[in-house]
Design a protein that fits this description.
Oligomer: single chain
CATH superfamily: 23S rRNA-intervening sequence
Number of strands: 0
Number of domains: 1
Shape: elongated
Structural class: mainly alpha
CATH architecture: Up-down Bundle
Order of helices and strands: HHHH
Helix content: over 70%
Number of helices: 4
CATH topology: de novo design (two linked rop proteins)
Distance between the termini: 13 Å
Largest sheet: none
CATH class: Mainly Alpha
């Protein structure tokens, strides 16, 4: 599968990245090379791994990259929770992002199961 741009999960993950980048503008400047950088990397990793997996030659490889994307989604969730616990932003600011992460993880699981059946 090479048409990763047609995957709803990829599009949703791209939207997540855009929202994460907007949120990161609210964090203190001293976090620019720390938490901000890490959060951006984990968010970008999600659609990137979905696309890379879709571009591979086998279903097994696609599933492996979806698994990596799932790990990045969980990593991002943890970082967003940490941002709230460190009181950089309110819980309300990350609530929608966490919901989006949950949706992406569910979609990821469903896509993996669908690929396994083929």
């Amino acid at each position: 599968m090479n048409k990763y741009q047609e995957l709803k999960i990829w599009d949703k993950a791209m939207n997540l990245v855009e929202q994460v980048y907007s949120l990161m503008m609210l964090l203190p400047e001293e976090e620019k090379f720390g938490l901000v950088s890490q959060v951006k990397k984990s968010s970008v990793s999600i659609p990137s791994n979905i696309a890379e997996g879709a571009g591979r030659n086998s279903s097994k490889e696609f599933i492996r990259f979806l698994s990596i994307a799932n790990g990045s989604t969980t990593e991002l969730e943890t970082q967003l929770i940490l941002i709230v616990r460190l009181k950089f932003v309110s819980e309300e600011k990350v609530e929608e992002l966490l919901k989006l992460c949950t949706e992406i993880k569910k979609m990821n699981y469903s896509l993996q199961k669908s690929i396994e059946r083929t």
